[in-house]
Amino acid sequence: MSTRGARILQDLTLPEGAHYCDTLSEDHIAQAATQVHALWGAQHGPASYLGHVHEQIHRSDGALHYAGVIDEHGALIASHKRYEVDLASPAGDVSAMGIGAVFTPETHRGQGLAPSMLAEAMRRAKTRDVKLAILFSEIDARFYERLGFRVLPAHTFHASVADLPEDPDVELTPCDDFSLMLKLYDASFPDGSWYRKRTAGSFRYWAWRHGARARFLMAHRGEVVGYLSVALRAHALWVEDAVRVNTTRAVLWAALAQLARKAQRDQVAGWLRPDDAGDPFVEQNRSLCVPMARGLGAANENLVHSLVKSGVYFSALDSF
Q1: What is the distance between the alpha carbons of residues 143 and 115, in angstroms, rounded to a whole number?
Q2: pLDDT tens string 5-21
Q3: Angle 44-50-56 from CA coordinates, rounded to 5°
């Protein structure tokens, strides 16, 4: 992070009389749910959405907390989600704070509350020996760059099914065995890679959080070589998470094409890993859900440099 970015972060303070709370009370969680309902919970009624928020917290097994800024009258005037995240790195495991659902009610906007809230969240995380802050930006990334965040690789890929191979030796079977998929996931990264660590429980949680998805074990000539998590869009089979182990990308392409043809889709698109793409896939930069990272303290800026240089990959299931 630049010296200027560090200085900006140090200068950000909350309004007089307001304080930051890193784990909101039930009443303040209800206030947060009411405030963000129209933006992120429109498919639910207000009461139903509050229930959904509580279910998110409960299912996360302690990984998700609602945090925010409370004014002198006890009202919530800004909020965000705070996730406990672990990353694998060439130097070992790295603890991170995930930031999501940053929100300020319209009546309190224009006062710098969101930057000040995030600055305080990061200051507190640093005292817990958290090394990185990570988020997936749905707005202009320059907002977070001013707080010292750096953009990480954010690509999607698409190809015509007609250009993908067929392979009669590829077999796909529905799968909800998260322990088995976790073993495949871990085995798919070379030693010394950056990637988001999962447990079977967190894998199940994030699969649930991202909605109902079809998951398949991928086998080739009788041997399990990976898995696929996909969804259907208007003209495409959408890839949310794809893993291959000890097989070629042509086998992966044939598996995706097989699912697309069965679903009567003429395109395969989504969050493929860069080394699983290549011709005939076309790469596009994402403008939404862009991963960004910031070191918490000067001593951890080398971690961000390593992240950027590594071309780290996050699947859709890793986003929050």
Answers
A1: 9
A2: 555 667 788 999 999 99
A3: 95
Give residue 90's Cα distance to chain centre. Answer: 21
Taking each helix axis from N to C end, the angle separating 46-59 and 26-40, rounded to the nearest 10 degrees, works out to 110
The answer to whether residues 112 and 180 belong to one domain is no
Residues 118 and 162 in one domain: no
Query: Looking at the structure, do residues 184 and 40 belong to the same domain, yes or no?
Result: no
Q: What is the pLDDT of residues 180-239, one digit of tens each?
A: 999 999 999 999 999 999 999 999 999 999 986 899 999 999 999 999 999 999 999 999
User: Do both 296 and 279 map to the same domain?
Assistant: no
d(Cα 257, Cα 171) in Å, to the nearest integer? 12
Tokens representing 317 are 């299931």
pLDDT in tens, 71-102: 999 999 999 999 999 999 999 999 999 999 99
In terms of residue numbers, what domain contains 215?
155-285
Q: Tell me the C-alpha to C-alpha distance, in Å, between residue 51 and each of 34, 44, 59, 228, 272.
A: 11, 10, 12, 30, 33
301 in Cβ contact with 264 (< 8 Å): no
Q: pLDDT-based confidence at 3, cuts 50/70/90?
A: low
Q: Specify the number of domains making up the chain.
A: 2
- Locate 189 and state its tokens: 């990264």
Please tell me the distance from the alpha carbon of residue 22 to that of residue 40, in angstroms, as a whole number: 21
Question: How many angstroms separate the CA atoms of 281 and 98, rounded?
Answer: 31
Model confidence, pTM: 0.93
Q: Are residues 140 and 7 in the same domain?
A: yes
Same domain, 103 and 10: yes
Give the pLDDT of residue 108: 96
82-110 burial: b if 16+ Cβ within 10 Å, else e: bbbbebbbeeeebebbbbbbbbbbeebee
